[in-house]
Amino acid sequence: MTIERTYALSDIHGHIDPFRAALQLVDLDRDPAAELVLLGDYVDRGPASREVLETVRDLQQRFPERVTALLGNHDDWFLDWLGADDEDSSWLLGDADLGTVKSFLDPLELAHALGHDDPSSDASALDGPTMNHNIKNAIPTKHSELVGWLRRLPRVHETDEQIFVHAGVDEDAGEMWRAATPDYVFTEKFPATTGPFLKTIIAGHVQTRSLHPDGSNGVFHDGESHYYLDGAVEEVGKLNVLRYDHATGVYEDIPVG
């Protein structure tokens, strides 16, 4: 199998419809010479975090040699919360209207986690470690395979020409970047780095409107070694798709919609 085209997507943030629209452009079923690299941040902000994760996992299972999924900082924070002390409810309190939680638990399951039997009740009583414990244990109990899969995702993917990563690497380390970069930098590096590097770095995390002089949301290229893809899907309703042509070495921002 020869890969001729590599597509990259990032920062889906629980928005399943824009993700499905972007996948229509990639079309792994009809293009056996295509591969897909997903740069993380599958959860939070949107209403369908679980559906996004399941779609990514299913793609990996169907195309194990052609789909690579990386971990993002929001995915990492979600996993940290699941494994944290019950006293630490900071992630849960930051989940606006429990949007991410509700994608994993149906109304009755959430009601039980909150200590009652009324699925129509507003989930507002998040006032203690018991509530936090109940909710964060209900998710891996119901979705143990999905959570386990998420925990196993790598933080970086390297090819002969590129470094795919959610946020960035320690570029000051030069050729030693992989060994010198702490895990949290792969997923949380900020601000964006620009300029030349040993390989082309393709990342998400930093919204491209903060990098484009005109505040636009398309793929940002610094003219050197960096591409950034996060187009703020939660606001614009679509994802950026970057395509790399192996024969020509050309990168292209593929319009969605």
Automatic annotation (TrEMBL):
Q: Name one GO cellular component term.
A: cytoplasm
Q: Which InterPro entries match?
A: Ap4A_hydrolase, Calcineurin-like_PHP, Metallo-depent_PP-like
GO MF entry, a single one: bis(5'-nucleosyl)-tetraphosphatase (symmetrical) activity
Pfam families under this entry? Metallophos (PF00149)
Domain Calcineurin-like phosphoesterase spans what residues? Answer: 5-170
Q: Name one GO biological process term.
A: RNA decapping
Q: What is this protein called?
A: Serine/threonine protein phosphatase
Q: Per the UniProt entry, what species is this protein from, by scientific name?
A: Brachybacterium saurashtrense
